Amino acid sequence: MSRRKKRPHGMKKDRPKAKRTPTEAELDEALVQDTAAVFSCAFETAADFLRQCQKDLDELDTGLTFGRLALEIWAGHPGAPESLVAVLRDYLDVRRRLLDDLTAIERRLEALTAGEVHMHIDPIEPLRDLVRKRLFPPPADT
User: Fold this and answer.
1) Which of 11, 13, 89, 125 is deepest in the core (most CB within 10 A)?
2) What is the DSSP letter of 40?
3) Can you give the pTM of this predicted structure?
4) At 117, is the pLDDT very low, low, confident or very high (cuts 50, 70, 90)?
5) DSSP state of 136
6) Which of 107, 105, 109, 108 is nearest to 97 (CA)?
7) ω into residue 16 within 30 of 0, thus cis?
8) Residue 36 CB-density burial (10 A; 0-12 exposed, 13-18 middle, 19+ buried)
9) C-alpha atoms less than 13 angstroms from C-alpha of 48 in its C-beta half-sphere
């Protein structure tokens, strides 16, 4: 009959260690470090804003679809409040202009990320301090 070998005293089975949840201060500092790292590189800054721009364009496109639907419903309804129809039209006009502007900016950012835009700001520590001050300003004296 075979016997199972005992582990030496104090050795536990190979179990993954439970990950400690980072503190709010650690999360804040990680945000500062990441933001400074991205914003200290011209290429990374352009790429970051390109992603933001594309996300905004997707959201605008969806919003315009629903806005046009609401306008179609209300503009085609007899006795609809003209003030509502007018504000929906104005809202859609503003959103369409924003879509056009962001589309132009997207093209410029794409050109930057496809080209040779690659410069770093050194030293990075003053930039980290600036990021820290802007994202987590000290409380105002009351």
Assistant:
1) 89
2) T
3) 0.76
4) confident
5) S
6) 105
7) no
8) buried
9) 12
What are φ and ψ of residue 65, in 5° steps? Answer: -60, -50
Phi, psi of 139 (to 5 degrees): -60, 140
Phi, psi (rounded to 5 degrees) for 120: -120, 145
Reading the block at residue 32, the tokens are: 């500062």
Give the Cα separation of 75 and 86 in Å (integer): 9
**Tokens matching residue 59:** 């959201």
DSSP states of 70-90: HHHHHHTSTT--HHHHHHHHH
Per-residue pLDDT tens over the stretch 34-46: 999 999 999 999 9
Q: Is residue 117 within 8 Å of residue 45, measured between CB atoms? A: no
The CA-atom distances, in angstroms, between 6 and each of 1, 14, 16 are 15, 14, 20
